[in-house]
Write a structure and sequence with these properties.
Elements: H1 13-60, H2 64-67, H3 74-89, H4 99-110, E1 119-126, H5 137-152, E2 159-163, H6 178-193, E3 201-205, H7 213-239, H8 244-250, E4 254-263, H9 264-276, E5 294-303, H10 312-325, H11 328-338, H12 346-369, H13 373-379, H14 387-409, H15 417-437, H16 455-460, E6 465-466, E7 471-472, E8 476-478
Parallel strand pairs: 1-2, 1-4, 2-3, 4-5
Antiparallel strand pairs: 5-8, 6-7
Helix pairs in contact: 3-12, 4-9, 5-6, 9-11, 10-12, 10-15, 11-15, 12-14, 14-15
Length: 486
């Protein structure tokens, strides 16, 4: 065999590996170095761009921090957000407190009072829910308002209707309907003051105002009362011995006037729904009585319930309960929108904002008075142990509802049917939480039974300024004693 010398041009596989491996490492090192330089350049570039934007923003907003007040509370933050939204949408989102009550007063001042022999009066008392089958202080105040008018103003209605279903607290049921309990207290009060019901008819309606109670009342009047009233009117006209021309002028329509007696927040609900959502209004049933020979009208007589309790937690609950009642017209409007019966009203968006801000302000006030959660829980009654949790949950649902309907409320966009359905569910959650947990219902003390003016009722009523007389009006206020604030 010949020994062949290795050729300078021949290479083995091992030689290739030895040469390729360093070459590969050199390639990886150079690629890594290039990527590192590129990353450094990109990071530096991004930081430079961010610094440039921050510099431009600081120049653009220069001087704003010194002029704008610092927001120290959630309420101030929400108010500032509302102002900014109003500026963007060019739409005022704030609602003046007391607008609903002023609307009720204006309605009564503009409502003509028929002064004719053909007038028939119907008193409708909206009963307050009984507390464990006992009449409450607020319910007694409503009944006393009716009896006071009958005693002091010789008001003798042809028909008195007590409206109220059988209700209960905490899911339980009372054995006595609200209408029945209110009627029993009414008769006891009439006996104690010597009031005789000579020609007044009584009817008990065991449905709520939301369950078409007024439709049942109208049907009863249409069937049983109206024929008798028209017959009496015709007989009165035939007994008048006058000439034909005078008899023609003498004949007038039958005027049926309804007087509603309740707390101010419930009557405001009725009036607000009638103004904003006429198709959803319970008062619409009263117009069914009107015709060629009949006219209808109505007015409101209310008691103003107070939330000035010595217990700060009970005071917070009472004020929150009254704020929650402002949500009822909004719920009615949302149902009408979902059923394609009406549009979402801008006034109802203002109500949502006002209720949320009011509850926020009250909660922050309580937290400032009672600085720790433990002290707040200590101040609460056992049944109110979760009131703060309830309020926070209701505020969360209210905030989400506002987020959903904001485009429609501010008129900056549209909301779909699904959006309104979601808003309705959220608002119902908030309302039922507040309505069931915050009603400061108190039973009427036994010593106050049969007394027309009681200390307990006085505590539940607040005086209302009356500019005509320059003094505080009575705790039980009729619309004749109020004025047009504008």
């Amino acid at each position: 065999m010949h020994n062949l010398a290795p050729s300078p041009y021949t290479t083995s596989s091992s030689d290739l590996k030895k040469k390729q491996i360093p070459r590969k490492r050199n390639n990886e090192t150079s690629a890594t170095a290039t990527a590192t330089i590129s990353n450094k350049e990109s990071v530096v570039k991004r930081l430079k761009q961010a610094a440039t934007r921050a510099y431009i923003a600081s120049k653009t907003n220069e001087g704003l921090d010194s002029t704008k007040p610092k927001l120290k509370t959630v309420r101030q933050l929400m108010a500032e957000l509302d102002r900014e939204l109003a500026r963007i949408s060019k739409f005022e989102v704030f609602r003046r407190p007391g607008d609903s009550l002023r609307s009720v007063q204006k309605h009564n001042l503009k409502t003509p009072r028929p002064n004719t022999s053909h007038k028939r009066d119907v008193a409708v008392l909206l009963a307050k829910a009984l507390s464990d089958d006992c009449i409450s202080i607020e319910g007694a105040a409503r009944i006393q308002c009716l009896v006071k008018r009958m005693v002091e103003e010789d008001y003798e209605p042809d028909l008195i209707v007590f409206v109220g279903p059988r209700s209960g607290d905490d899911g339980g049921k009372n054995l006595v309907a609200d209408a029945d309990g209110s009627y029993l207290y009414f008769r006891h009060l009439c006996k104690s003051v010597g009031l005789q019901l000579r020609r007044t008819e009584i009817r008990l309606e065991h449905h709520s105002i939301d369950q078409k109670a007024l439709q049942e009342v109208v049907q009863y009047i249409q069937t049983h009362c109206k024929p008798q009233w028209i017959e009496a009117m015709v007989n009165e006209e035939t007994r008048v011995d006058i000439d034909q021309e005078s008899a023609k002028n003498f004949r007038k329509k039958l005027s049926i006037h309804f007087s509603f007696f309740s707390s101010e927040y419930q009557l405001c609900q009725l009036n607000d729904i009638h103004v904003r959502s006429p198709n959803q209004s319970a008062l619409r049933a009263l117009t069914q009585l009107a015709g060629s020979s009949t006219t209808t009208s109505w007015s409101f007589f209310y008691t103003v319930t107070s939330t000035n309790f010595n217990d700060p937690v009970r005071a917070l609950a009472g004020k929150t309960y009254k704020s929650a009642q402002d949500l009822v017209p909004v719920l009615s409007n949302l149902r009408g929108v979902i059923n394609d019966r009406e549009f979402f009203q801008a006034d109802n968006y203002k109500v949502l904002v006002a209720v949320r801000n009011s509850i926020l302000a009250d909660m922050e006030g309580l937290y400032q008075t009672e600085p720790t959660l433990q002290s707040i829980r200590k101040a609460m009654r056992p049944q109110d142990a979760t009131l703060d949790v309830v309020l926070e949950g209701a505020l969360m649902s209210l905030g989400r509802c506002l987020d959903v309907v904001r485009p429609a409320g501010l008129m900056t966009g549209r909301c779909s049917r699904e959006d309104f359905e979601r808003a309705l569910n959220l608002l119902q959650q908030a309302y039922y939480l507040l309505d069931r947990s915050c009603d400061p219902v108190l039973p009427l003390p036994p010593q106050d039974w049969g007394v027309l003016g009681t200390d307990a009722v006085d505590e539940m009523a607040t005086a209302v300024d009356d500019d005509r007389r320059g003094e505080e009006s009575s705790n039980l206020i009729s619309i004749d004693d109020v004025i047009d604030y504008d």
